Automatic annotation (TrEMBL):
It is a multi-pass membrane protein. Residues 10-114 form the Cation/H+ exchanger transmembrane domain. This is Sodium:proton antiporter. Its main location: membrane. One of its GO terms (molecular function) is antiporter activity. The chain crosses the membrane at residues 32-53, 91-114. The lineage of its organism: Bacteria, Pseudomonadati, Pseudomonadota, Alphaproteobacteria, Acetobacterales. Keywords: Membrane, Transmembrane, Transmembrane helix.
Amino acid sequence: CEISASLVWLAPMFFGHSGLHIDGDALTWPSVIASLMLVVLSVITKIGAVSLFPPAAGLNGRQRLSIGALLQCKGLMEIVAATILHEQGMISEFAFASLMVLAVISTVLTGPLFRLAAPKVSGSTAA
């Protein structure tokens, strides 16, 4: 499939290219702390929204938490938006560095958060 082959080769190059635009002087402790605060706010907001307004009727608490955890995986969109805003001069170097760190951290957190929240499946495991 042409699309999947393109994604396999081009997506990592885009991430790397975008990451190279981070000014090393802007990646300071305040920008890392700002990123961590944004991650905490993002996790609470997404899980809270899915818990209060579930996307389907009849979802139990663990299922809602699982969906909220999966919403964390937004790295590509965040990086695209931050790159466009930065190239247009609409956000500072500090904000760009913070958003890039936020994108990486929130994407990395998706798997572990989902494994913690996912409903446990009973029965035999598939071979």
